[in-house]
Amino acid sequence: MIGVGGATPLPVLDNHALSALVDTSDDWIRSRTGITQRHLASSDVSLVDLASEAAQAALVHAGVATESVDLILLATSTPDDLFGTASLVQARLGAHNAVAFDLTAACSGFIFGLVTAAQYLRAGTYRTVVLIGADILSRWVDWSDRRTCILFGDGAGAVVLQADATDQLLGFELRSDGRLNHYLTLGYEPDPQTLVESVTIGQGKFKPIFMNGREVYRFAVTQVPEVIEKALFRAGLTTDDIDWLLLHQANQRILDAVADRLGIPREKVISNVSDYGNTSAASIPLALSEVVANGQIKPGDVVAAAGFGAGLTWGAAIFRWH
Ligand code: ACO
């Protein structure tokens, strides 16, 4: 990983303003989640806008020319085009030598993308990869459902990865369990329409995000520490070797509970959930870009990153910041 960047933060909706939309309060949201505000994309902002801006920032930070990008991976669950949005980002960047495709694993998307990118780099197939995590969940939230609308925000972050003599991904573990899918969904609902006798198709629409908050919370605080420990084992490291714990920014209580279970002190936990809420695939690269920009993370530091979310999917990656 040789560069990181984020899209410019979008307009803010704070807890007080949100309390005018649904029956909630700043106090309830902050005490249950640690979130004070979220950034939301206006109707004229596309996912391509956000993803391209983040990718461009990461390329500038890495000092890598657009022409030398071999692969663009776009981790998102909220594409502009269901056929694929990554190629539109490729066109916007002018990265004509690259191949680009979307990868969907909800809030685990960045970690799944990081491991996918590493396989291409290790195999020697590609030398330079841009990995973007970008989501506009505000398009899919039911803004009258106080159980979910308080949590989510929009954004994009990106990293540049390059094949290197010293492999920076030290260990990883990816998991999914479709039997738990119903805890967190953004599902398609077909509306049967008979075209001719014996041919009925299902042109419908996607329903807003549904979440069983308690079950997702329970899943996160038990499964995420386990997956981090497995990734550490693969890396030949222990929790004492971790300089930074970089979790998907879903909820401060989840970040604290995972850190406590692993015995990692709070000062090693990276958090910007207060300012952004849950930005899904964008949350890890966005948080990383902030701590790199303010100099908290130093070259050589060991980062334990983990994502978790819909699918259900979860995974951890232990890497050394270049
Ligand atoms: N304001 C006020 N009251 C509320 C609100 C709200 N925004 N939301 C729920 N309540 C009420 C409920 O109606 C309920 O009232 P009742 O007891 O009278 O029925 C009470 O508060 C408790 O509700 P719970 O849902 O049990 O609240 P909980 O303490 O579990 O907190 C929360 C909810 C914050 C959502 C928590 O469950 C959580 O963080 N879960 C994890 C969610 C998460 O991280 N999801 C992201 C996954 S990533 C991805 O892939 C998208």
From TrEMBL:
It holds the Pfam family ACP_syn_III_C. Residues 101-178 form the Beta-ketoacyl-[acyl-carrier-protein] synthase III N-terminal domain. Its EC number is 2.3.1.180. It is found in: Cytoplasm. The active site is at C107, H248, N278. Keywords: Acyltransferase, Cytoplasm, Fatty acid biosynthesis, Fatty acid metabolism, Lipid biosynthesis, Lipid metabolism, Multifunctional enzyme, Transferase. Catalyzes the condensation reaction of fatty acid synthesis by the addition to an acyl acceptor of two carbons from malonyl-ACP. Catalyzes the first condensation reaction which initiates fatty acid synthesis and may therefore play a role in governing the total rate of fatty acid production. Possesses both acetoacetyl-ACP synthase and acetyl transacylase activities. Its substrate specificity determines the biosynthesis of branched-chain and/or straight-chain of fatty acids. The last Arg residue of the ACP-binding site is essential for the weak association between ACP/AcpP and FabH. This is Beta-ketoacyl-[acyl-carrier-protein] synthase III. It comes from Candidatus Synechococcus calcipolaris G9. The lineage of its organism: Bacteria, Bacillati, Cyanobacteriota, Cyanophyceae, Synechococcales.
